[in-house]
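[step 3/7] inverse_fold.run input=structure_tokens len=324
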């Protein structure tokens, strides 16, 4: 019996596949490689290049590998870009999730761990975001993630699907040098690319009501995040109840200026970030309460900010040395 990881060749997905291996849960991967990398998936893991919109392919994979659970990460993940291409976001994230759920019903797979997002909450005005906070997404991306949660809950009523949804905040770092984040929308790659190309990293505003004037965000290490997925899968496999939703956050947060300082120390590259005007809609602080996940999913911040930066920089340097 196996677990199918959709988007398993991506930055987060590849870490999840290895976390499953660490607890002896067999994994199968499907990824269309739009943003994923075939080399991120170990040779011993069955891999299929394909789109989750291909329901027949999903059914065939699930039946061939006796899949009884799915960790669903595949989708369109750029919140800002989704404003310009909402139909792309809805097709990949909503129609794609319908396709996965349809295939699961046909193949008899009855367990799901869903990759959701802090974007479900929208802009908040509380010190700590809990799962009880109202969901008011402010981008098509956030809307599609919330709709995905609704679809999964409806399947629970219709078919008895066992599930949980994990709402991520800012995922950074690397759990292995051969896995790295190359997204052009995430803070760490943007800083690293600027430095390696001789440009100055930018900070959007330094006049927020925070200790150093820059935005505070919740950063979690990708290896910690991946481990929580594996724990959730094992709980579902063992028939143990889980909450419908969990936040995966630090409870503390780090400012953009703190990130820049850590990058300066780790990289050894001296730079002073350029301060430019605020971006409209950027809240001063977004930090999550991970108490429920700590209780049920062995959720811990096993890596501090320096670990996050060091591991991310090391993996970026490793790939640069390969010309990747």
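[step 3/7] decode complete -> sequence:
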């Amino acid at each position: 019996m196996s677990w199918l990881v959709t988007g398993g060749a991506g930055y987060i997905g590849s870490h999840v596949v290895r976390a499953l291996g660490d607890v002896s849960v067999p994994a199968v991967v499907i990824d269309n490689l739009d943003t994923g990398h075939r080399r991120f998936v170990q040779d011993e893991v069955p891999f299929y290049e394909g789109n989750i919109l291909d329901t027949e392919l999903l059914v065939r994979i699930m039946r061939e590998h006796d899949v009884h659970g799915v960790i669903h990460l595949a989708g369109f993940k750029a919140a800002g870009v989704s404003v310009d291409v909402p139909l792309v976001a809805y097709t990949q994230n909503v129609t794609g999730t319908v396709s996965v759920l349809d295939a699961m019903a046909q193949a008899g797979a009855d367990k799901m761990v869903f990759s959701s997002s802090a974007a479900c909450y929208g802009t908040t005005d509380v010190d700590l975001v809990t799962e009880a906070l109202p969901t008011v997404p402010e981008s098509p991306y956030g809307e599609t993630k919330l709709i995905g949660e609704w679809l999964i809950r409806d399947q629970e009523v219709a078919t008895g699907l066992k599930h949980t949804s994990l709402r991520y905040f800012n995922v950074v770092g690397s759990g292995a040098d051969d896995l790295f984040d190359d997204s052009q929308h995430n803070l760490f790659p943007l800083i690293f690319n600027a430095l390696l190309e001789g440009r100055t990293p930018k900070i959007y505003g330094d006049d927020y009501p925070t200790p150093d004037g820059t935005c505070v965000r919740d950063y979690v290490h990708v290896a910690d995040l991946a481990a929580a997925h594996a724990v959730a899968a094992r709980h579902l496999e063992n028939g143990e109840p889980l909450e419908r939703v969990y936040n995966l956050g630090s409870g503390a947060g780090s400012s953009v200026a703190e990130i820049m300082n850590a990058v300066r120390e780790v990289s050894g590259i001296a730079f002073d970030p350029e301060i430019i005007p605020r971006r409209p809609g950027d809240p001063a602080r977004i930090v999550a309460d991970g108490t429920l996940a700590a209780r049920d999913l062995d959720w811990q911040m096993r890596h501090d900010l320096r670990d996050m930066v060091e591991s991310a920089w090391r993996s970026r340097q490793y790939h640069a040395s390969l010309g990747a």
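[step 4/7] annotate
The mean pLDDT is 94.
The two ends are 35 Å apart (CA to CA).
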